[in-house]
Design brief:
Two copies of one chain form a homodimer.
Chain A (H helix, E strand, L loop, with lengths): L20 H20 L14 H5 L11 H12 L21 H13 L10 H18 L18 H7 L12 E5 L2 H18 L6 E7 L4 H9 L7 E4 L9 H13 L2 E9 L11 H11 L2 E5 L24 E4 L1 H4 L7 E5 L1 H12 L9 H5 L18 H35 L4 E3 L7 E6 L7 H13 L5 E5 L8 E7 L7 H15 L2 H7 L1
Helix pairs in contact in A: 4-14, 5-14, 7-8, 7-12, 9-10, 15-16, 15-17
Chain lengths: 527, 527
């Protein structure tokens, strides 16, 4: 039987209906045309969806088809049922939440990732998937000016033969740790904070103070994902200290010090501090240098959540806010927010070999079926040991495509354009008595309200709803604590940062705000 | 100033180099051609990468470019540096691990998701993103024969007007819970088990026995992600009971009962049982009906991990193995393994409203900036409350495209083809004295070894290495416990399931095995 193995196999009665490469080529061209058309006409669409709950669900059949449907019909449904019921995040007049940048180079990189369909859990399961990621994250560390201890090698390139690039990049912050850490792509900043917290707790459990209650420090303005992570790791609200913020909504380091002192005197252990660079509410920057010094002395893991603002550090003039990161243990930011790379792409960096080792200890479990010669020899990175999921797609491709398509200069221009637009908007608001700035502008984020509005923001909320109902822009809000201890106050957020947002869109936004303002007195009586 | 807002803005000195729709169209066409060429020639490539550690990293420049690079150059690097250093998961002779199915319809759905660039954390942030997902997961529950309590409405459609579809789908398992649960797309089965465990612990913490130590039950063959999840939620090895397996490597329900009895008598609380349908090592099926009955009586959360095998339940003839799921609390499987949907797409279902409520309690945190009228009114699903990440991409599109392109019948044919191929391979191995089956075939997974090999698998490992070195196929291994208590034994796994794997590839695999066998005696002396 040896030369006729497996013969006769029964003939295949029913082959699944695989799409041929020729059919794929046709369908892809149709879809690319649809996508181009979507972008060419996106400004004509209302930014925020005008969908009734259940409308899309009800429009779809209640059961899958028995037999294949042609691609044309699927695309028709995309056109008729999906597209009109989206909130258009790539619309140039989307100013809500934070941006979720997309760009065509990123879409192409993601398409390639989908098509290659490789799974990079281990180095062996696709070496290029691992090594492109390692290289691109080392680039990113350099671009942000992170110390060399955040790279996989522990050293930045000298760039002696590239003076222009060196000039553009500016000087990275000096390393205070002299071993390599390295970066990995995670899905979201929520995953990053949970991963960092897991590493910190691993360190705590191995320490001589492991019997002490671990304490986690956040500010009142930290992202909700920190509290979610604290729940998931099995801690309770009593393990969290919410540190008050100052008049700029940044963590008060003196209050942090007092809280740590008090905990230490009660035999509790400061284990994890989350500092935010660019809070979600108002874009506040926690004073990193002071917090980092404190964390280092008290041996608490310092995680820096720069989910949104981190992208801005590609501009050297912004890096004053990053000072102190030299002593942080982990740092994360989302290129999928403001660096033109499609969701999901959250860059997570470890500072130095000790931090990396704690992460690996928290995340490594090697069953027999994942063992292989390359991993056993220890000379390669297996990224499944750097995060919670086992499987992983080739997300570095889209980031690599973006960095190469734009170059360092192009990405700096992208950030600077939005900061400039926000500065202009801030000046206009500041000069208009009918409005007030609700917080200092932070990079490309401007917060305002109707002047003399009540704390609940009755007028401001009505104004925002009208702008959103107009379909010409989409804004969201927050509620900010009063630094003087008064009632918290409503504020409208304008988060500039869309890839396609040009000066004219910011002008139109303001025009829309002004037009929505005029009939307000009557409208608010009705509501 | 009201009619000339924001004027004059300074002119933009440097625009980032955005890609125009015309340039995107050209680049996309080039890339689609590359992808078609990759698939047309994939069989000529060695399945497993032959890369030296560091080769790809070193081939890439040590710094990002200062200025834009043309897309052609990027694509050249993909061709020369990336493609040759991949392990080709979509190669029809990839039989390693479990498959990570891709398909062209899925690639198209994912391309659309990238291009639309919407973020579905809340219903409001793109209603279609949420509602297509809800609908498609209800379809999937129906296709797998899950009880109606796993759907978002609590009811399956009657299908009275579609007798053929009804015939194809078979009868779903009857519901024993009479309220709706529903499904959500997560990234991986690792995330699913962590999410399920978080919900179970939330339930435990609210219970009257919350002071008792929570105990987690797995089998020795459960996936490593369960232990990883236990670490992450802050529990320790003492919280885990590893239940022995029977001669088929399935969890022994009598042993589970004894373990629970013992824990209860020691004032410990059985909180979470992970049953596996299709273990990673050998594809074993834990006896779900018995385990489910036990969990229900002892009020332990039952999570069913069917990561790989779950896709096979689209075939009604496989559903005997699913019996008992009626009483499970959560169920997950990965369409990205064996249902032609690209990574990442892990379907996670809750059984009934109580299970869903515990999940939502474990995962919900609503800061002010995410509040909105639709969510406050309570009539919509906000999927960010169903999982750890906040942000989420429109992953339902690729699944929707796949279900419509193939139809129920096409997906059944896909599964049946691989099971039939595996059955043929099993017969050939069984008939050949030089080999032995190392475990009973499970669906499309066949385990074998060289006959009379030592427990470490000296001959079998050498054989596997040669097959892999040949580049003509890629196999991985596992080590299986001896049911009689002897030494655990090495086994080669053949996981059939690639989208492009046809009978001839299984034949070629076996031919390669036989050719690699011949010179073994000499070779093993050398090694």
């Amino acid at each position: 039987m040896s030369d006729e193995p497996l013969r006769p196999l029964p003939s295949t009665p029913d082959e699944p209906n695989h799409m041929s490469t020729a059919a794929f080529r046709d369908a892809a061209h149709q879809l690319v045309d649809f996508i181009c058309d979507y972008y060419d006409t996106i400004e004509a669409r209302p930014v925020r969806a005008r969908t009734e709950p259940g409308a899309v669900y009800d429009a779809l059949p209640d059961a899958p088809p028995a037999h294949p449907e042609p691609f044309d019909r699927v695309l028709d449904d995309v056109r008729e049922t999906v597209a009109p019921n989206l909130t258009h995040w790539q619309h140039p007049s989307f100013f809500a939440y934070f941006p979720a940048n997309g760009s065509f180079p990123s879409v192409l990189g993601d398409l390639l990732s989908s098509a290659l369909g490789v799974q990079g859990m281990l180095w062996q399961t696709s070496p290029a998937c691992t090594e492109v990621e390692t290289r691109v994250l080392d680039w990113l560390a350099l671009m942000l000016g992170l110390p060399a201890s955040f790279t996989s090698t522990g050293a930045h390139p000298s760039l002696q033969s590239e003076p222009e690039l060196r000039e553009l990049l500016g000087e990275p912050l000096p390393a205070v740790r002299d071993s390599p850490g390295g970066g990995v792509i995670l899905s979201t900043a929520s995953e990053a904070v949970l991963t960092a917290l897991s590493a910190a707790l691993e360190r705590h459990r191995r320490s001589s103070e492991s019997v002490q209650q671990p304490i986690i420090y956040v500010s009142s303005q930290s992202h909700s994902s920190v509290r979610k992570a604290v729940n998931i790791v099995g801690l309770v609200p009593e393990n969290i200290r919410e540190i008050p913020t100052d008049e700029r909504h940044a963590m008060d380091p003196a209050a942090l010090r007092r809280a740590i002192d008090e905990d230490e005197s009660n035999a509790c252990r400061p284990v994890f501090v989350c500092a935010t660079l660019g809070t979600t509410g108002s874009g506040a920057f926690d004073p990193l240098a002071e917090i980092a010094e404190l964390c280092e002395r008290r041996r608490a893991w310092l995680h820096v959540d720069a989910a949104w603002a981190g992208s801005a550090f590609v501009c050297p003039e912004q890096r004053g806010l990053l000072r102190g990161v030299q002593s942080a243990d982990s740092f994360s930011f989302n290129p999928h927010k403001w660096l033109l790379t499609n969701f999901d792409c959250s860059a997570f960096f470890l500072n130095g070999a000790a931090a990396r080792e704690h992460l690996l200890r928290a995340m490594s479990i090697t069953p027999e079926y994942l063992r292989n010669a390359a991993s056993d020899a220890g000379g390669v990175i297996d990224y499944r040991d750097w995060h919670i999921p086992l499987g992983r797609r080739f997300r570095a491709l889209k980031l690599w495509f973006v960095l190469r398509h734009y170059g360092v200069k192009g990405l700096q221009d992208h950030i600077r354009t939005h900061c400039r637009q926000a500065a202009s908007l801030e000046r206009v608001i500041d000069a208009d008595d009918r409005f007030e700035l609700a917080a200092p502008r932070s990079m490309s984020l401007v917060l305002f309200r109707v002047a003399d509005d009540d704390p609940a923001g009755t007028h401001s909320r009505a104004l925002m709803d009208r702008v959103n109902d107009s379909g010409r822009a989409f804004l969201t809000h927050t509620v900010l604590p009063d630094p003087d201890g008064g009632e918290a106050r409503f504020a409208i957020r304008v988060a500039i940062g869309g890839a396609l947002t040009r000066d004219e869109h910011v002008r139109t936004l303001w025009q829309t705000v002004l037009e929505s303002l005029e009939p307000l007195p009557t409208a608010t009586k009705d509501s």
